[in-house]
Structures are given as structure tokens and as C-alpha cells.
Design brief:
The protein is α/β, with parallel strands linked by helices. It contains eleven helices and eleven strands. The two termini are 30 Å apart. The strands form two sheets. A nine-stranded mixed β-sheet has the order 2-1-11-10-7-6-4-5-3. It has a two-stranded antiparallel sheet with strand order 8-9. Helix 4 packs parallel to helix 9, helix 5 packs across helix 8 and helix 6 packs antiparallel against helix 7.
Length: 334
């Protein structure tokens, strides 16, 4: 057996009692990863004839990674602040190679929305409506197939809010670092407040600080800042809306009563405090919940090519355990 080097904290909370264990992943491998061999190995790219099942009536910019065969589950992904749907490219390819149909939407104010007259500003209410439309679309396209919401950072909070609002459309939730508890938040709020008074509609740079705290990898920092698809300048008005939206996380968590939920945090995250994600975990009403704290994980765990083999295997096992769908044959991604 290959020894997995990541350190992961797993926790299940029952009736408010926290039980967490910090272990070497290698110790978990025989039990939790034993079933991973039942998943199809990565296959060649899908045929060009394989097209996404996305209604032309839904004007939500998105990307997709589709397996050749009928998918075992559908994953609808939501990106973090400043990014766009392309940030899930590696995640989408990996999961599609294991039989999952993966869709990633652009949040209002980011990605392809910037080229549209309507939607080029941050609007969380409209974004939630977009996600509802997308969920209904994939439900219709894949009848009987479980649909899971996946999000990271801001996207993790949006996915949590959508899961609480549309429980009949969602079979499960994977939310990575959705907390609003950020390092240096007081200083940031004061700075944004001053800029808001000066001119609430004048864009200000947020990318430099976010990127530097998101990862210590300087090459990745340069890549994220240079990516023309990312938006690293927001207005004080948009940042205020973002802050207010994130404060609603606890209310959303309390409304999730029965849904399977996996929360993930990076122990070495320098942007969002892991303790905030743990507090959100406690706020979840559902008893079917699991907390995973990656011992050497930074802020980005799913996006920007940061998905590790170890974490992907853990996700596959969790998804399989939480899904009632049958295991398909060998599949491929586009």
C-alpha cells in the first residue's frame, strides 16, 4: 500500500458533542480507502458527441466535464471570490474520469458575466436563483441521479445557502472553507469602510491580499493574478454585500436538517480561520455530517489545480457512501 503523506482531521459531531481525531492518512487508508478500487480509473477524453445536458433557456455561464456513460452523480460547483468556473478544471476532469457529471457555474460579477450587461456586478440573490435554475436543469436532464452541490470559500458559502434554500433539489453538500472568519478581518473592514465613504462604486484591489494569503506557492500566486478570467478588483459596495452575505452562514447551516454534508478546511489556511469552519459544522442541524481538516492544506483545496490524490480519494469514498446510485462502468471525461 502506498503511504499517504497528508495529515487529516476527521470529526463527527453528534448532539453537540465533538469527536475529532488527528491521524496519518495511511492509518485510514485500509478502512476508508479500501473501496476506492471500485471506482473506474481515469479514461481517455470523451467523444466529441458527448455534450452537456444544459438547457439553452438557462443563461448562466458555466463549464462542464461529462463522462461518456450515464453519470453516477452530478456535481454542481461554485467558485470562490475573484475566480471563475475554470478554477474547477482539474477537479472536474478528475471527478468526470470517475463517472461524475461535473458542472461549474460563474457567480454573478465574475467570469463570463463580466462580458454581459446584466450580471456584471456581484448579486448573491440573483446567483442563488441561477443555481436553482441549474439544479432544476440537471435534475431534469439526469432523472434519478443524485445531485451534490460543491463550493469553496465564497462558493462554499453560496453552496451552503443554496442547499438550505432548495433541499428538495440537492442530495448532498461539499463545502470547503465556507467560513466568514478571516485573518485580519477588522483591518480589512476598516479599509473597505473608508473606501466606501470615499466612493462606494470605485473598484479597489483585493487580489493581492487574497492571493498572498490563499497560498505560499509564488508560482500559483502569479498564475492567479495573471489569469484574465479572474476578477481581482471589486467595489466597496460589492465587498460590503459579500461581507453581509457571509454573515448569514450560520442561519443557513441551521436550516440544513437532514442532508449529508462534508465540510473541509485547511489547517495551514492563512486567509480563513479553520475554527470558523468548525463553528459552522457545529451549527449544522443534520446529523449526517463529516468534518475534514487537512493538516498541511492551505486555503485552496479543490480549485486552481490544488486537489491532491489523497483528498480526491476521500471525496470519492464519501460520495459513494452517501449516494444510492449504482456503480457504472468505465467512464471518461471530455
Amino acid at each position: 500500500m502506498t503511504v499517504l503523506r497528508k495529515r487529516i482531521m476527521l470529526g463527527r459531531f453528534t448532539k453537540g458533542i465533538a469527536l475529532t481525531i488527528l491521524v496519518q492518512t495511511a492509518i485510514l487508508a485500509p478502512s476508508l480507502l479500501a473501496t476506492s478500487s471500485t471506482f473506474a480509473q481515469a479514461a481517455p477524453p470523451a467523444r466529441k458527441s458527448v455534450v452537456p445536458a444544459w438547457s439553452a433557456k438557462i443563461k448562466v455561464p458555466h463549464r462542464s466535464w461529462i463522462p461518456i456513460d450515464r453519470p453516477r452523480e452530478v456535481l454542481l460547483c461554485v467558485h470562490g471570490l475573484g475566480f471563475n468556473s475554470q478554477s474547477f478544471d482539474e477537479f472536474g476532469r478528475v471527478m468526470a474520469s470517475h463517472g461524475f457529471a461535473v458542472y461549474a457555474v460563474d457567480v454573478r460579477g465574475f467570469g463570463a458575466w463580466l462580458n454581459k450587461r446584466e450580471g456584471n456586478k456581484v448579486d448573491f440573490d440573483a446567483c442563488l436563483n441561477d443555481i436553482e435554475a441549474a439544479l432544476k436543469n440537471v435534475r431534469k436532464a439526469y432523472p434519478g441521479v443524485p445531485v451534490f452541490l460543491v463550493g469553496e470559500s465564497m462558493g462554499g458559502a453560496i453552496a451552503m445557502r443554496a442547499a438550505s434554500r432548495y433541499p428538495d433539489l440537492v442530495n448532498g453538500l461539499i463545502s470547503s472553507v465556507p467560513s466568514s472568519e478571516r485573518y485580519g478581518s477588522l483591518t480589512t473592514k476598516m479599509h473597505v469602510g473608508l473606501r466606501y465613504i470615499e466612493d462606494k462604486n470605485k473598484p479597489m484591489d483585493v487580489g493581492t491580499t487574497v492571493v498572498e494569503r490563499a497560498t505560499a506557492n509564488q508560482n500559483l500566486q502569479k498564475k492567479m493574478l495573471a489569469d484574465k478570467g479572474n476578477r481581482m478588483e471589486l467595489t466597496p459596495k460589492e465587498l460590503k454585500q459579500f461581507d453581509e452575505f457571509m454573515k448569514g452562514n450560520f442561519d443557513a447551516a441551521a436550516l440544513i436538517e437532514k442532508m449529508p454534508v462534508l465540510l473541509i478546511a485547511g489547517f495551514k489556511d492563512k486567509l480563513v480561520k479553520p475554527e470558523g469552519t468548525i463553528e459552522l459544522f457545529n451549527a449544522l442541524t443534520t446529523q449526517d455530517k463529516l468534518l475534514m481538516v487537512i493538516g498541511d492544506g492551505e486555503h485552496l483545496l479543490l480549485e486552481e489545480n490544488q486537489l491532491t490524490d489523497q483528498l480526491s480519494q476521500m471525496l470519492l469514498v464519501w460520495l459513494k457512501n452517501e449516494s444510492r446510485s449504482k456503480s457504472p462502468g468505465v467512464t471518461a471525461h471530455e
